[in-house]
Amino acid sequence: DSQGCHQFIRLNSGGGANLLINSGFEEDLAQGDWTGFGTLNDTAYQGAKSLKMNGSRTKEITVATAGYNIAGESYVLSFYVKDCAASGDKFTLGSKEYNLSSSADWIRQQLSYTYPATASTNQVSFTINSSNCLIDNIKLEKGTAATNYSAYASGPSLIYEKLLPGYLTDACYT
After folding, report:
1. Where are the alpha helices (DSSP H) in the chain?
2. CA gap 76, 14 in Å, rounded
3. What's phi and psi for 152, nearest 5 deg?
4. pLDDT band at residue 50 under the 50/70/90 scheme
5. Which of 159, 98, 169, 174 is nearest to 133 (CA)?
6. Full-prediction pTM beyond 0.90?
7. Which of 154, 107, 94, 112 is nearest to 135 (CA)?
8. What are the φ/ψ torsions at residue 170 (nearest 5 degrees)?
9. Residue 25: helix, strand or coil by DSSP?
10. Residues 170, 17 contacting (CB under 8 angstroms)
11. Coil, strand or helix: which one is 166?
């Protein structure tokens, strides 16, 4: 019986939980809210599709409920790129910026950022600035070091727990 069974994603540092939906770009770009970032491309690092960027785009991910603060927490963004411009193509995580590698081969890029103690948000944001890069297997995770690519809600970070049904709350907690 699945009554009371709920799916959760464990967001521990170094746990490898990917916070991005459709980050391998195998589904329509509306899945995971990638619309406006570019177009699907048939050249991929893994799978059948990648994303061909079409300008500078920012994505904000809410990592917890309102009232939660990410001050002092670290996050890492990693992904594979190819065909980037020799100059001008870059990506940003928090306020940390990194130039994208220009190569005809797929190269893994990664950048970690620790939010300052003065941060007062529950959102992690990143920007990718490119009009020609192909991007695949993008992963945003909690921690300072990138782990191997995994899709959203997969692997050891996905857990199932049975929660007490609401109609039993009074009987158990009074």
Report:
1. 169-173
2. 10
3. -60, 140
4. very high
5. 98
6. no
7. 107
8. -65, -40
9. coil
10. no
11. helix
